[in-house]
């Protein structure tokens, strides 16, 4: 089944403890991206990657890092999480670099930072 | 800057009713518009993708239309069922917004048995 898989689905952590949220897609998509969803603010893009070793900032990149060493994986790294990063996170992928054929989203990771 | 608005924010209907969800966007220079469904605490499921050159797309009981020049899209759901209860999001990929999708806040739909 074609899908984007995120892990973990739920995570509670403490301020300052480094964490990684993994994202993997099995559709051979070039493009991958991370979004966060917050009440009243909707979904906002954090980082994106046009292809392997090519990443760029989205609208809200502060406090996050990403890497794209393999085409299928695009982990989101929070090196020193803070409570304002409590959110619902989504990974997405698409064919090509422009999303012309639409985007596939993962099931989400609900992160709570205390 | 592209802005996407969805009206209404919430909608409650009896089972079997036909309904329309609205999405408007401020910049008509778009590549495509995608409708998603989000169930509570879950991911986004793509429902329909309309390219800028298309007027509508259909999938089962769902029909989405696009009027690019007026900056509007509608999602029509026929013969609604309780299983249709979810939040429906529209997202626009703009020609000048890089790779990002611009999302609306969504319409929370409840279909009552």
List keywords for this structure.
heterodimer; A: 114 residues; mainly beta; seven-stranded mixed β-sheet; four-stranded antiparallel β-sheet; 11 strands; globular; B: 113 residues; six-stranded mixed β-sheet; five-stranded antiparallel β-sheet; 0% helix
Q: TL;DR of this structure?
A:
The complex is a heterodimer of chains A (114) and B (113). Chain A is mainly β and 114 residues long.
Low-confidence stretches of chain B: none
Shape of chain A: globular
Please state the CA-atom Rg of chain A, rounded to the nearest Å: 13 Å
Shape of chain B: globular
Structure summary, number of beta strands of chain B: 11
Oligomer: heterodimer
Helical fraction of chain B: under 10%
Structure description:
The complex is a heterodimer of chains A (114) and B (113). By secondary structure, chain A is mostly beta strands. Chain A has strands spanning 4-7, 10-13, 19-25, 31-38, 42-51, 54-57, 65-66, 76-78, 87-94, 104-105, 109-113. In chain A, the strands form two sheets. In chain A, strands 2, 4, 5, 6, 9, 10 and 11 form a seven-stranded mixed β-sheet that branches. Chain A has a four-stranded antiparallel β-sheet with strand order 1-3-8-7, with no helix packed on it. The N and C termini of chain A lie far apart (36 Å). The model of chain A has no long low-confidence stretch (mean pLDDT 93). Chain B is an all-beta fold. Chain B has strands at residues 4-7, 10-14, 19-25, 30-38, 44-51, 56-59, 62-67, 72-77, 86-94, 102-103, 107-112. In chain B, strands 2, 4, 5, 9, 10 and 11 form a six-stranded mixed β-sheet that branches. A five-stranded antiparallel β-sheet of chain B has the order 1-3-8-7-6, with no helix packed on it. The relative contact order of chain B is 0.34. Classes of the chains: A mainly beta (114), B mainly beta (113). Chain A binds chain B through residues 31, 33, 40, 42-43, 45, 48, 50, 58-59, 88, 90, 92, 97-108, 110, and chain B through 31-32, 34, 36, 41-46, 49, 51, 89, 91, 93, 99-101, 103-106.
